[in-house]
Amino acid sequence: MRILITAGPTREAIDPVRYISNQSSGKMGYALAEAAEKAGHEVILVSGPVNLAPPAGVETIAVESSHEMFEAVRDRIGDSVDAAIFCAAVADYRPKNIAAEKIKKNSDSMTLEMEKTEDILGSARSVFGFKGTLVGFAAETHDLEKHAVEKMQRKGCDLLVANDVSRKDIGFDRDENEVRLFFADGRDERIPMQSKADLGVALIQKITEL
Ligand code: PMT
């Protein structure tokens, strides 16, 4: 199969030296890319800024902002992609205006006006017309099942991989992860805690079966 994977955080610029981002290290997305490549699939990895080496044998496209990630996915998802896995932690909001020069510390507080970013996963079916197997991730701190199932249905996913990021031993930046899987056909599975490398292999196996 040809598999497109998004990974890592995005950075949303405030001015030439500052940005808003999140805790994603890219480890989970890179583990998926490595597992897919080792299983013999052709992999396109669209990655936000991370401190990881591009996986061998994987076409890696480096992006910074959610808008750049949106454009990279839009430009490649039509290229005979069979499965798309959205593991990136994309910013939901970005500063509405990016200051051209460094903002000076002239007042005791400051307010940033934010606007919504493009929903890349949410665009896969409705905007990009993607017909292949669509896998979303969800990072939740509470009501995991309710939010995950709602996201799966709203974004047209075949599978939603739900992460409990309220736990400190799994999720963002850890080497281990534990997830729950919610399938569009109503199945619900739990994959116990293991290394992200092993979890990547298990998830690629599940996605291949879909
Ligand atoms: O990178 P690591 O440190 O290894 O951590 C892994 C992880 C915890 C980041 C990963 O396992 C994970 O949970 N990724 C999803 C993070 C996330 O942003 O979840 P969300 O619930 O906010 O988003 C739901 C889905 O929509 C995700 O598939 C996301 O990629 C996608 N999305 C969200 C917003 C947006 N503007 N565009 C998107 O495509």
Distinctive features:
Rossmann fold; globular; 5 helices; binds ligand PMT
A few lines on this structure:
The chain is α/β, with parallel strands linked by helices.
How would you sum up this structure, described in words?
There is one protein chain. With 210 residues, the chain is α/β, with parallel strands linked by helices. The protein has a single domain, classed as Rossmann fold, CATH 3.40.50. The chain is 26% helix and 30% strand. It is built from five helices and twelve strands. The strands form three sheets. The protein has an eight-stranded mixed beta sheet, sandwiched between helices. A hairpin with a 4-residue loop joins strand 11 and strand 12. It binds ligand PMT.
Write the layout of secondary structure elements.
Blueprint: E1 2-7, E2 12-15, E3 18-20, H1 27-38, E4 42-47, E5 59-62, H2 66-76, E6 83-86, E7 93-95, E8 114-116, H3 120-126, E9 133-140, H4 144-154, E10 159-164, E11 176-183, E12 188-195, H5 196-209
